[in-house]
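Hi Y.,

Following your request, here is the sequence exactly as I used it, all 106 residues.
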Amino acid sequence: MITGKELEHLLTDRGALGDELTASARARLPDIGIHLETVTARDITLPGEVKELFNRVTLARKEAEAMAIKRREEVAQTRQLANTARMLENNPVLLSDLAKPVGTEG
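Below is the corresponding structure, written out as tokens. Let me know if you'd prefer a different format.
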């Protein structure tokens, strides 16, 4: 039952694991005269190597998400610069206005 689950799913949804274990045990235990109320998964302990590997995978995912956000921001900035350049190209008056020192008129 547990071997078919992804580790991340087991760690984030322990309540569902307890429900599955309860259902599985309730189906078998009456045959030997035991009544089971509920099973709860409180803690899941991982061997050191697995924990370290899981932490590295989680870190790599977070870094990939951060890089994706950074790329989206860079694309947005490039698009904004291209739009500004296109607007200045199509409106030379704007370019001459930008070249004037601040505080001067005419």
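The mean pLDDT is 84.

Thanks again,
Q.
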